[in-house]
Design brief:
single chain, alpha/beta, 9 helices, 281 residues, globular, TIM Barrel
């Protein structure tokens, strides 16, 4: 299993000015850094690749703008969304990354007035199939992250993510679960992980309030028991937010942790303790 952290723990916007975060991740002796592509125009793949110098890079994104919504009834918007996602995949590959994940299956915070229709599910699957085939040629995998009902009308649960994978039917597509979102949408933490099985590629180890893992009421023993059962050996990452961002609503209105260093150190300590407890490598 690979242990890593999202760059949002330090910054709300990635650019060459934040390349030093890569050094902090190395100092924490983690295996990878997750870099947001929310501002693709500021992402310098070559600079990231050179600075990483052996540290694995994964990327993620959240579809915000309505002009890149691949579930739109406007064909031109869907095409624009496919191009945008392909650009993200290309940037990932150029940075040396092999995993691109996130809320990339429909517009985040979409002003939906009803549950998604069969046609909207099909829009997403067809678009992502094209993106997945493009990504496969670059050696990049995709992982789709279910989020709460307040953030997405399409994927909220592991079961829905499995449905989308079946519709896409490409072997480089996977699921990215997050315990913060699971705490709202799932009945428990064990079953959704077991359901995902070998299609689980990424997991955000987040406390119920997005604070330090182990400090709240997430049932971590259920999480790691499920990891052990399915033989999970993907990306296990910490996602915390340093502040609000213009790129995405994080709804962070108060200080969740004493400081960034405490968040990183205590999160890493907790995860390694749980991995040792369940004899997971």
């Amino acid at each position: 299993m690979k242990l890593g952290i999202h760059a949002y723990a330090w910054t709300s916007e990635w650019s060459n000015d934040t390349l030093g975060i890569i050094d902090k991740v190395k100092e924490a002796e983690l295996d990878y850094i997750e870099i947001p592509l929310m501002r693709l125009d500021l992402f310098d793949p070559q600079a990231v690749k050179e600075r990483a110098d052996g540290l694995e890079v994964v990327t993620s994104n959240v579809l915000l703008a309505d002009d890149v919504d691949i579930t739109s009834f406007d064909e031109n918007v869907r095409k624009n969304g496919v191009k945008y996602l392909k650009d993200c995949v290309q940037a990932t590959a150029d940075a040396g990354g092999t995993m691109f994940s996130g809320v990339i299956y429909s517009q985040y915070l979409k002003d939906a007035k009803a549950a998604p229709s069969d046609e909207e599910w099909e829009f997403s699957a067809v678009a992502l199939k094209e993106v997945a085939q493009f990504a496969k040629n670059l050696g990049v995998r995709l992982a789709f992250e279910p989020v709460t009902r307040y953030e997405s009308y399409l994927l909220n649960t592991s079961e829905q993510a499995m449905k989308l994978l079946d519709m896409i039917d490409e072997d480089n597509c996977f699921i990215h679960l997050d315990s913060y979102h699971m705490n709202v949408e799932e009945k428990n933490f064990y079953d959704p992980i077991v359901l995902a099985g070998d299609k689980l590629a990424c997991f955000h180890i987040c406390e119920n309030d997005r604070g330090i893992p182990g400090s709240g009421h997430i049932q971590w023993d259920d999480v790691f028991t499920a990891f052990k059962e399915i033989g999970f050996n993907g990306y296990l990452g910490f996602e915390g937010f340093s502040d609000m961002t213009d790129n995405m609503s994080t709804w962070v209105w108060r200080q969740l942790v004493p400081d960034r260093e405490t968040f990183v150190n205590e999160s890493v300590t907790f995860a390694r303790k749980m991995l040792k407890k369940y004899d997971i490598e």
